[in-house]
TrEMBL record:
Residue ranges constituting the Amine oxidase domain according to the UniProt record: 12-399
PANTHER family, per the entry: AMINE OXIDASE, PROTOPORPHYRINOGEN OXIDASE
Lineage: Bacteria, Candidatus Eiseniibacteriota
Family annotation (InterPro entries): Amino_oxidase, FAD/NAD-bd_sf, Zeta_carotene_desat/Oxidored
Name the record gives this protein: FAD-dependent oxidoreductase
Domain of life of the native organism: Bacteria
Name of a matching Pfam family: Amino_oxidase
Coiled coil: none
UniProt GO molecular function: oxidoreductase activity
Record organism: Eiseniibacteriota bacterium
Length: 439
């Protein structure tokens, strides 16, 4: 007998959960508060096409995501391309990809460059050693390369990913990231020929074909008990019951929705804050650099760095224009996050024009997007407090970014959390079928 299931959230965690739960034969209703699917990977319309609101790429090691892309019939649309990284220091750009680049990186002393090289080898050897969970990334790096090299090179790289919350990051997070990104020799990144829109649309088609009901513009306010069942209260005042629920909202929102369920304090009281993001998207009539991404360090810029997406994504997607993202990872309560779109765009335009004089004449269009809950701010020993996916076995599950640790926050890691949740979910909901519901 099929059970009724609700999935909360239409980002990758919700879409992947809905595919898997519907695959078990259950009747699924997916709730999404916005009027679009895709969550942080969503797109905006541009000149008859679609561009990502936030820069997104796929890595060859993203096996769970690539498997889903294959299942949805889009694997032949995956494009792979060699990419590279630049590093702007005091307004001068350095390539930073090979051992030779590192040896030539003159902001560091020769000894510091050698220590940096050794760090790469040591970090790879340590891999995902659980002891790395107990120390901060900052202390781990300083121990290997020294204070000065940390300040010049590593601190900006960490802040370019998490902003001013970098001191909290555990070393395990960093080693996981280094393993994900640099374990295949030359850097290669992937994208879909028609962008994330094509993947989100493929998810939607797949779900509708399997009878999944998708309710957009429907925010879930609370998750409650209804006898043995779970009930969702939505912001339109309706209350609906399901045999089980899979929530994929960021942890802080999940805690708010379940505040009256009396959950284990290890989940309800877990303090995990998130960094938000502000991001300017610039369309230019010529490229800025040949690099996919480049942190701006000690260069007087507001942005923490630039991602030049057109060094990965085909130009046809942007009607021949070059797409660059200028980004800040910053808390939703920060002054920067609170600035209005025009102010932020003006700051980013100033960055572009100061750092790349040609940009003054080449910007054709610009857009600004922001998101309040993006990067969980991991703290040391997070492995010990990471919430389980089975919150009330058989009834309530959680698959969200709070559980990707020590993997990096990505579409692939979200898919891995979902795949990891499924064996217990399948068994526990089968027990509900036999015992609770059918009895
Ligand atoms: C600037 C930036 C760059 C990134 N770069 C990459 C990259 O290169 N590669 C990569 O793989 N990943 C990248 N990511 C990370 C990636 O976007 C996230 O890991 C992923 O999108 C998280 O998916 P999610 O479904 O868990 O959460 P989200 O995408 O946040 O989706 C959650 C969804 O749930 C909905 N929701 C929440 N609560 C409720 C509720 N109560 N009721 C109804 N709906 C609700 C929200 O509206 C949202 O649509 C990047 C993210 C950002 C912001």
């Amino acid at each position: 007998m099929a059970l009724s299931a609700a999935v909360i959230g239409g980002g990758i965690s919700g879409l992947a959960s809905a595919v898997r739960v519907a695959g078990l034969g259950h009747r699924v209703t997916l709730y999404e508060g916005e009027d679009f699917l895709g969550g942080l990977g969503t797109t905006f319309g541009y000149q008859g096409g679609h561009l990502e609101r936030f820069y997104h790429c796929i890595l060859p090691t993203d096996t769970a995501l690539i498997a889903l892309i294959r299942e949805l019939g889009l694997e032949s649309r995956l494009l792979w391309r060699g990419t590279s990284m630049g590093f702007m220091y005091q307004r001068r750009t350095y390539p930073l990809n090979t051992a030779l680049d590192l040896l030539r990186f003159s902001p560091l002393t020769f000894t510091e460059r050698l220590r940096m090289g050794l760090m790469g080898i040591r970090a790879r050897r340590q891999g995902l050693n659980p002891e790395l969970d107990e120390v901060t990334a900052a202390d781990w790096i300083k121990g290997m390369v020294g204070e000065r090299a940390f300040e010049i090179l590593w601190k900006p790289l960490l802040s370019a990913k998490i902003g001013d919350q970098y001191p909290a990051l555990p070393a395990l997070w960093l080693s996981s990231r280094m393993n994900r990104e640099k374990n295949t020799g030359a850097e290669v990144k992937g994208c879909l020929e028609q962008g994330y829109r094509s993947l989100i649309d493929a998810f939607e088609r797949h779900l509708r074909e399997r009878g999944v009901e998708i309710r957009l513009r429907t925010q879930v306010r609370s998750i409650e008990r209804h006898g043995d069942l779970m009930a969702l209260r939505t912001d339109d005042g309706k209350r609906e019951s399901f045999d089980f629920v899979v929530a994929t909202s960021p942890l802080v929102q999940f805690q708010r929705m379940t505040s009256r369920l009396g959950l284990d304090p290890a989940i309800s009281g877990l303090k995990l804050d998130y960094q938000g993001v502000v991001s300017g998207v610039f369309l230019l009539d010529r490229p800025l650099t040949r690099y996919y991404w480049m942190p701006f360090v000690d260069s007087g810029a507001t942005a923490q760095g630039a991602i030049e997406m057109s060094n990965l994504v085909p130009l046809e997607r942007s009607r021949g224009l070059y797409v660059t993202y200028l980004v800040n990872y910053t808390h939703r309560d920060s002054d920067l996050f609170r600035k209005n779109d025009a102010e932020l765009l003006a700051l980013y335009r100033r960055d572009l024009e100061a750092l790349f004089p040609d940009a003054r004449r080449s910007v054709v269009d610009q857009f600004l997007f922001r998101a309040p809950f993006v990067e969980p701010i991991w703290t040391v020993n997070y492995s010990r407090i990471r919430p389980p996916t089975a919150v009330i076995p058989g009834r309530l599950y959680l698959a969200c970014t709070a559980q990707v640790y020590p993997r990096v926050n990505s579409w692939n890691s979200c898919c891995e959390v979902v795949e990891g949740m499924m064996p217990a979910l399948a068994a526990e909901t089968a027990a509900v079928q036999v015992g609770g519901r059918a009895a």
